[in-house]
Design brief:
about 180 residues; alpha+beta; 4-stranded antiparallel β-sheet
Length: about 180
């Protein structure tokens, strides 16, 4: 059924989006995903850092950015300093090093709250997808395209899909919280 497939697709996108969002949360470990949201004004075009430089993890808490065009070093450094990641980069003339400090207990708790908020927002999006699908099923029932029994079966099916999706979100959140608290 089309409404079921659309709901499933929306739910998968929500979970994928949540996982991508979690890569941008700085958990004390160096992760190139932290730079994903930072755009550099490169010849008048907003450009992602990973599109103009090689980004690698040198050590557990050190990211090294090696631009292909050395003249863009200052631009990348400026974009990182202007971003909200809260870390000052070090420019050695050939590459930029970003050293991630150890997280304080208070900062870890704040990050866990942030993870929880993202998780709750994702659950709301999942429930909205379920609601939309159920409304479509009811509309089909209203115009007699499906029977009452079909409606009940579709509602049960969409509820199972919703429950599985929420379980996945809970697992992704729990894993991220564990990562934050144990780094």
């Amino acid at each position: 059924m089309e409404a079921m497939n659309k709901a499933k697709e929306k739910m998968e996108k929500v979970i994928t989006g949540l996982e991508k969002e979690f890569t941008t949360i700085r958990a004390g470990r160096a992760s190139p995903g932290v730079l994903d949201k930072i755009l550099v004004d490169y010849y008048g075009t907003p450009t992602a850092i990973n599109a103009m430089a090689a980004v690698s993890v040198a050590e557990a808490r050190i990211l090294v950015i090696s631009p292909w065009d050395v003249s863009s070093l200052k631009l990348i450094e400026k974009a990182i300093m202007a971003s909200d990641i809260g870390i000052n980069p070090t420019n050695d003339g050939k590459s930029i090093r970003i050293v991630f400090p150890q997280l304080t207990e208070e900062r870890r708790r704040d990050l866990v709250k942030q993870v929880s908020t993202y998780g709750e927002n994702s659950k709301v999006a999942i429930r909205n997808a379920r609601r939309d699908a159920v409304e479509k099923f009811k509309a089909l029932k209203k115009v007699s395209e499906i029977t009452e029994d079909d409606l009940k079966n579709y509602e049960k099916e969409i509820q199972k899909l919703t429950d599985k999706s929420i379980e996945k979100i809970d697992k992704v959140c729990k894993d991220k919280e564990t990562e934050i608290m144990t780094v």
